[in-house]
Amino acid sequence: MPATFLHRFVLSVGFLSLFHSAYSAAQHRSYLRLNELDFSHLPLDIIIQALISLFVIMYGVMNVAGDFKEIKASAELENKSWETFRNIPSFYTFSHRGKYLAVSHQTGNKKHN
Description:
0% strand; single chain; mainly alpha
């Protein structure tokens, strides 16, 4: 499901609401310090706003992020055969020192005979 303008807007509103609840919490702490009151807990409306913002952000992120893949590692590999696993072009080596070692090994055997 592609991210539409609505999903991005919902995500933006969620972040703005979360920032607003954080600002309100800081403002509440500042109010308590100015009036020399003890801090026991945040007001219920700030807590509810923060929780609702969190769920709105989670909804927005799930729709903006795109398609998720399965957690099971073998889910993508079930349709491939064993031969395709061994055929990895990045492991191809055409110029290696094996041919020189094989020549010296063959000449070394001839000397001992």
